[in-house]
Amino acid sequence: MFPSTTPPSLSTQLLTVAILTLQRQLAHNRVNTVEKSSPSNLEVDYIVVGGGTAGCIVAARLSDSNLQTSVLLLEAGGPMTVTREMTGLVDFSSQVWPYSIVQSNRSSLAFTQLFLPYGKVLGGSSTISFNYYNRGNGLVYDSWARQFGAQGWSAQEVLPYFRMSENNTDFEVVKARPWIHGTEGPVEVSTTPDPDPFLLQWRSIVHKAGWPLADFGDLDPNAQFGVTIPQVTQSVANWTRISSASAYIEGRGGRRNLRVELNARVTKVLFFGKAAVGVQFMKNGQIFQAFSRREVILSAGTFNTPQLLMLSGVGPRKHLEKFRIPVIADLPAVGSTLISHPNMLLDFRLLNRSLVNDPYPVGSEQTTIGSLYDFLAKGQGPLRQSPSVMVYFGTEIDGNRLWPDVFAYSGGPALYAALSNPVNLQIFKPDVREQWRSYYQALAPTEKTTNAFTIFLLVRPKSSGNVRLASADPLQLPQIDLGYFSSTQDLAAIVRGLAMGFELVEQSSEAQQLLSYSALPVPGCNFCEDGRPLSKCPSYLVCLARTVTFSDGHDCCTVRMGSSLVDNSSYVLDERLRVRTLQRLRVIDASAMPAIPNGNTLAPTMMVGERGAVLVIEDNK
């Protein structure tokens, strides 16, 4: 007798979803392993500011290193929620910092404001962002050591720290490169279980066009140029997201020496002379202080870490004096070297919607009791994954096959709905909103077709921006200037990358049967009048790049490290991530990177967290 395949009744599904949601949320809420008392005047060995991608790792490793060592982790957001387990449900509307961006006449011309998806939640952006595992090119890390003098950070030297966090669950991937991948770390790295058929077909098309199949977990420069469906940080047991919070903080009972304070926003580092001795933070409308016997470690992220330093008197003297902030250390490089990957989204129509496992966008028809039941009870359905196909290009302008400078990833309707969000026309400038409404209406799915997209990123940008205080009020977010296309070379490189991408489609009959680009140009731009292919229409590609530029959260380098032999105007940190001219103050997050990796920043930031924790332990023996 075969088991029944009849789905449970709606009431049974609803009850199951309610029970499992409650159980899982209670587990997320139990992040403290010490008996709670008033946070007033706490004294510990280490204070970690920011429970994000790196901060959770640092706090966990320090508390694990010695049970007699006490650690306080302060996170401005709340606990991870059950919906954050679902990587197929892409939601940037909650648990995020509402950063605003300085307007530019070089980029993002369509938007009234630029979207920056950074997590204000335990686990930070590892809890909310796309969870693709991509380490970047090894030449990036070699440049950290050679060009910037950050000894100890070359590709060969950082590889053990990538492996330290990784638990790669795909036997074939590990077998192919056992010296590259780790299998004993807390972060599961898994192969997407059931990618959409059109993604498999697109990967095959790119492969036939000359791109080798690649493993983006390999730091070898010879291995990066290629195409892949990337691995993701998810558990193969039930396909829940693995964030820094779930991997390092949650579910590790018995750690009595770690205290986690959620919804605690640090407003200032406290100094005694040149030594950091504690922090001031706000929680539930009250102001508290906490003191460290050894170190204060800032892991607040690319934007909040430089802001907190400047609010505390560490940064460019003239800028601090403008806000009447007493100067503790005149370090001009604080906030001065913001590096970011400019992105642009291209809208495509998938010509056969049957090539998508679930053709309706998550966020509408799919987010039902049935889909929630499938995910929570069985680890199945559209909520369990958001796969894409990733391709690297070498334009010969900013990069080549050995060290690519343009990166593209393509996905289906679920991701498209989250990224384009056509319902929210308020992101566009008022004078073009109706044009964008018509543009998206023309792209609406039909009975036979649905939406797809490709996002192009310039991943070796020459341009830089900055982070500056908007006021001396610690609750006011900083001013952020991404600096996109301040180098004209960057615009030339991304335009060449866009042309190479369009060439892939134009030169393949199989690709043209699979998808087609939008029949309408993006508002504000025009196709070439002679009808030439888009790969041969630079005027449209330039306009496209400047009009729909956005950031997907690959930002770094605002408190960068470098050689201790170089003067303090160039770098903020030494090679061991210690703030120059000060004592007992360290930065461990993406802001410490001297140059941006040419890929997703999730895995590199985890590596920085692992290596940074080791440096703290070594320096405090």
- Globular, elongated, flat, extended or rod-shaped: what is the shape? globular
Q: What composes the largest sheet?
A: 7 strands, mixed
What portion of residues is helical? 25-40%
Q: Give the integer mean of the pLDDT values.
A: 92
Report on this model:
α5 packs across α18 (602-619) and α15 (488-506) crosses α17. The strands form 6 sheets. Strands 1, 2, 6, 7, 8, 9 and 22 form a 7-stranded mixed sheet that branches. Strands 5, 13, 14, 15, 16, 19 and 20 form a 7-stranded antiparallel sheet that branches. Strands 3-4 form a two-stranded parallel sheet. The protein is globular and about 70 Å long. With 621 residues, the chain is of the alpha/beta class. 29% of the residues lie in helices and 17% in strands.
Keywords:
621 residues, alpha/beta, 7-stranded mixed β-sheet, 7-stranded antiparallel β-sheet, 18 helices, 22 strands
Topology, pairings included?
Elements lengths: L9 H20 L12 E8 L5 H11 L5 E4 L50 H4 L9 H9 L8 H11 E3 L2 H6 L10 E3 L7 H12 L12 H4 L2 E2 L15 H6 L8 E4 L3 E8 L2 E9 L2 E13 L5 H8 L2 E2 L1 H6 L6 E2 L8 E2 L2 E8 L18 H10 L10 E5 L12 E6 L1 H8 L12 H10 L7 E9 L7 E3 L10 E3 L6 H19 L2 H6 E3 L20 H10 L1 E2 L4 E2 L28 E3 L14 H18 L2
Parallel strand pairs: 1-2, 1-9, 2-6, 3-4, 9-22, 10-11
Antiparallel strand pairs: 5-14, 7-8, 8-9, 12-21, 13-16, 13-19, 13-20, 14-15, 15-16, 17-18
